[in-house]
Amino acid sequence: MKNAFYAQSGGVTAVINASACGVIETTRKHPDKIGTIYAGQNGIIGALTENLIDTSKESSADIKALKHTPSGGFGSCRYKMKSLETNKAEYERLIEVFKAHDIAYFFYNGGGDSADTCLKVSQLSESMGYPIQAIHVPKTVDNDLPITDNCPGFGSVAKYIAVSTMEASFDVASMAATSTKIFVLEVMGRHAGWIAAAGGLVDDSIPVVILFPEVDFDEKKFLAKVDKNVKEFGYCTIVVSEGTKWPDGRFLAEQGARDDFGHAQLGGAAPVVANLIKDTLGYKYHWAVADYLQRAARHLASKSDVEQAYALGEAAVNMALEGKNSVMPAIIRTSNNPYTWKIGSGELKDIANVEKMMPTNYISDDGFGITDTCHEYLQPLIEGEDYPPYKNGLPDYVVMKKVMADKKLVPFEV
Amino acid sequence: MKNAFYAQSGGVTAVINASACGVIETTRKHPDKIGTIYAGQNGIIGALTENLIDTSKESSADIKALKHTPSGGFGSCRYKMKSLETNKAEYERLIEVFKAHDIAYFFYNGGGDSADTCLKVSQLSESMGYPIQAIHVPKTVDNDLPITDNCPGFGSVAKYIAVSTMEASFDVASMAATSTKIFVLEVMGRHAGWIAAAGGLVDDSIPVVILFPEVDFDEKKFLAKVDKNVKEFGYCTIVVSEGTKWPDGRFLAEQGARDDFGHAQLGGAAPVVANLIKDTLGYKYHWAVADYLQRAARHLASKSDVEQAYALGEAAVNMALEGKNSVMPAIIRTSNNPYTWKIGSGELKDIANVEKMMPTNYISDDGFGITDTCHEYLQPLIEGEDYPPYKNGLPDYVVMKKVMADKKLVPFEV
């Protein structure tokens, strides 16, 4: 009987731990088939440095609590393994660690870059003669993985942005007669506007202008639209993606400003947009930058997202038990209304390094909103609430004990 | 039988509508004593311009839904009435409107400035011979009203900031090994650090450094503290009040920066603090500015806050029925653990223009955290959850129908 390895990779989310919970709980249901599941401390780096968390030392209650805990319970990392040709030593080290700890299953929980690493690991049997089954568990707030209907983590961010856009709009609407008329919310998504699109999920009675990375910023058209909204509704809410660019390709967030000491001033797109409106239209504004709050907001997670994250972790283990390798379980949408889905799968070779962009028919003709088709796609992903338990007014999130497996090898530098 | 007037004033909160609900529902229980309750459209301006919302036209279900709806359901305003001597015409107009609509009760829902307006209105019997009872309903996220244990709106902001600080810290903790080590969250509170203090409610295992407006920013000491945290915990979270100042009195948020066109660049304190850390300690950072999201976040309201906001609205009506004038119902804390409270009251002359600052023994000796005394004070205020109902993945907030009372007077310019 062989052991398994699980690691979290890249930016964490509100529900990546729900996938970890799915992987570990499902593994525990098959003690006759899979032995210990080791989690990499800080992702794949934990494998390379032989820093393996022995998850069998975590209580059932704590593993269960992962399902309602945001962030990466075992630590994540931003570390992309190079190609086999460029850095064979790293792959040899992986095999050395896998051998030392009798690991035959590799579960990698991440986005597009990680799918590429997982693909390379899945090929180790072939390329380096070490028998391993590598299964990728999808995760990314960027929602840019192909094949799967959506990516765990995205639905909860979308819900956070939609709710925040709604709440701030209610606020501004009640102040607009004598005070703030413009609210700008900056959201994540450097390459694609999936997250910004979620601002369009609020009711039509709320005037929201969305700035997508996919659409070059047209200052004149934008200001006209904002002004029209203020004149019609009394106020205007703007959801701006951090990836929104001027026609010359510069990010709005690159302000080119200098402080008193001549340091380049890093800003964020929200204050740029807000100041632009103030300078030209004269409206009083407020702006917010959600940053990590949006992806860490487990308190407002989408139930659909939590369930899918867990189901994908569970499916990954089942696929391993079925002898599969180099695959990723995926969400297949079977109906829109009511939203139904099932677990399907994709080959890692079709997933690694493939970025799913927003379809062009998801953005409205004027470039400032989402279409009905996009609304239909997004709506089910924010459905349902899944509240964490609270203690003393705060969510009762779990911290893993992180009992480390004994090291058997010489140290390795990454 | 006389009618009543209710208005929302100043910045809105997650629970000011709960007070409105308390006022209106309680009034409706006494149809033999109080007739129609008119709400000022956009606060006191609605009274001056005779834009009176006839709340009797709102359904019981909609009024009930105010309890779970953030923002100002009838519109608020930033408008401070001048003194009777400076602008007698405004007070005469108020009386004219009150007379025309047979209004004898004045409920004003606001903070310190509004308490002053309410006080002036309460003196109209004496100063201008118009019999009116004016009751102030406390509200302000700034938590700076005297007499009351706390101010409705504050507890929910505190909960939002504590939960957000916790969630973002979990996120950074799992990324810190290879990526972001610093997270900076900017919060409201230009004059007092009440809101920033809420960042100190997270568990001691999370390294949080708080920058208060009450404490001059000591760059060297601050950087040393941050560096120590990163070395000990691997990361550091900073909660910075928008009101934090350099020793020379300038706000951190005044960056003195200019963009490419020479426009003054408005930033926010968070990017300043983040850049300072990057420039000196070299740590990778992320920052967020919560802005209106924090005060509009009804989805994460404190149950204790919602209950108190409602109870104060209810108490205001009962006081009016008892014949009181020039008073404000207040929360009186009767025990800390368990937290118990009752409704008391204060005289407006003791409340108007009095600002309750954070006691100095609430800030830790090093100036970067809260004391146990402060923790004991704040803890009960974030207790309990009070979720709004959801529909299609979004909170089911209510929008008032706002049926306007017929105008009986000539227009009046404000």
Question: Pairing-aware structural class of the strands and helices of chain A?
Answer: alpha/beta
Q: Rough shape of chain A? A: elongated
- If strands are numbered along the chain, what order do they take across the biggest sheet of chain A? 3-2-1-4-5
- Tally of DSSP helical segments of chain A: 13
The appropriate CATH architecture of the largest domain in chain A is 3-Layer(aba) Sandwich
Mean pLDDT of chain A: 95
The helix/strand order of chain A is EHEHEHHEHHEHEHEHEEEHEHHEEHEE
What integer value in Å does the Rg of chain A equal?
A: 23 Å
Q: Kindly give the count of domains of chain A.
A: 2
Largest sheet of chain A: 5 strands, mixed
Most extensive interface: A-B, 84 and 84 residues
CATH topology of the largest domain in chain A: Rossmann fold
As a percent range, the share of strand residues of chain A is 15-25%
How many DSSP-defined strands of chain A? 15
Briefly summarize what is shown.
2 copies of one chain form a homodimer. The first copy, chain A, has 414 residues and is an alpha/beta fold. Helix content of chain A is 33%, strand content 19%.
